[in-house]
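dumping this here so i dont lose it
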């Protein structure tokens, strides 16, 4: 998902998307570093050339790394500018340790429920900000109660349980032919 939205800084990203990108990115960097180290071990003079793919990979992943982190901050209700501020403050010794811990806590925090100013929640799409369930089209609805025996003008759809007039030829809820 990250590579499809590699330069998109608006919207939200779930924890799973962020951490899977971080894991795969770290594994790729470790593999490229090992490749460069093997090159140096084989040939001290020209073996460092094998670090070139590592450099290209780092350059290629700067924008996707920034965008997925900004979207992760958005998912927790924080601004992307806060990420920029924490990153700039991270350059200062000792302050960098604190800002790194803050970033780790924010990226580990669960998504905000419902829609926030950055868009709908990818994790909780059917929940409003108040936490109540908002039914959507195509969701399951329990079967409707059967009418009393004295009301013989209604029948129940055998597929979805919707109460219908006996004269109906199809269910208006699910489209099943009666």
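and the seq i came up w/
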């Amino acid at each position: 998902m990250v590579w499809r939205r590699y330069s998109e800084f608006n919207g939200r990203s779930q924890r799973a998307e962020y951490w899977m990108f971080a894991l795969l990115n770290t594994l790729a960097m470790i593999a490229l570093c090992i490749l460069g180290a093997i090159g140096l071990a084989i040939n001290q003079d020209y073996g460092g050339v094998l670090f070139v793919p590592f450099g290209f990979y780092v350059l290629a992943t700067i924008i996707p790394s920034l965008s997925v982190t900004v979207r992760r901050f958005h998912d927790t209700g924080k601004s992307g500018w806060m990420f920029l501020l924490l990153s700039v403050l991270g350059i200062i010794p000792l302050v960098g340790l604190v800002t790194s811990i803050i970033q780790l806590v924010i990226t580990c925090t669960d998504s905000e429920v419902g829609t926030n100013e950055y868009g709908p929640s990818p994790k909780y799409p059917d929940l409003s900000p108040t936490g109540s369930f908002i039914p959507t089209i195509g969701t399951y609805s329990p079967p409707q109660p059967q009418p009393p025996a004295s009301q013989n003008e209604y029948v129940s759809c055998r597929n979805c349980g919707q109460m219908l007039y006996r004269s109906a030829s199809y269910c208006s809820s699910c489209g099943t032919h009666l």
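The chain has two domains: 15-108, 139-178.
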